[in-house]
Specification:
The chain is α/β, with parallel strands linked by helices and 283 residues long. The protein has helices at residues 14-25, 37-51, 66-79, 106-128, 160-181, 214-217, 219-226, 253-266, 271-278; strands spanning 5-9, 29-34, 56-60, 85-88, 132-137, 187-193, 237-239, 242-243. β5, α5 (160-181) and β6 form a beta-alpha-beta unit.
Amino acid sequence: MEGKTCLVTGANSGIGLETVRGLAARGAKVIMVCRNQGKGEAARQNLISSTGNNQIDLLVADLSSLAEVRKLADDVNSRYDQLHVLIHNAGLMSRQREVSADGFEMQFAVHHLATFLLTDLLLDLLKASAPARIINVASMMHKMGKINFDDLQCEKKFGAYSAYGQSKLAMIHYTYDLAEKLHGTGVTVNALHPGAVATNIGFPGWMNMFLATPEKGARTTLYLATSPELEGVSGKYFNNCKVAKTSKISYDREDGRRLWEITQGLCSLPSSQAGTQAGTQPS
């Protein structure tokens, strides 16, 4: 990975931290995106010390805010002339309904809208750096969700697992649709399930003894980011470093196209913009 520049969101703890560690240990230049300056800098210093790689940068952004996502993209585009790997790892699980600064359900905002918008704004840089890879850290829990087009923001009814599942299903839809639009650009996109991992989201603390470590949880992400055998592989979902099937409804391309168009509107992107940057017009 020497000579490669990688960006990892949600990078100061859990799977994100171990993903940065793995990339840095392989010689990559890594951009950490964290919400908290202090925690991010402490993690960065720890990673530099443990890997011996001082090519680890920190950018601070609250990905629940579309304005901050746009500022983050501006910072990346202005500071870096290459981006080979973009890893959307930031995540949360809300036990009660929370809304972002823009008024969106928080999990939908962080998992789907931030992923969609940040990718779109960095696509030119990714294509100029091709071959490049986009990696979406989804979840097996997408199988518990459905895209509720009548209540995307869970205003009428909120369930912790169903809302989380919807946001992760949205990431799967996005992965499949974006892969089609990126065909021929040299940029691939894949999604993954990291496993049941002991992190600061999702499970009560007492269950940690039964869960995988963040280091193990990062293995599939690192496999997708670094494996030579995946060069050119796109539009797939991986579990335990192997291609796996997603839920039946995740393959509904009509739902995927509808969600894409709605998301463009929510992110204030002209309908032609994202399709043009990806290489084709939205179908």
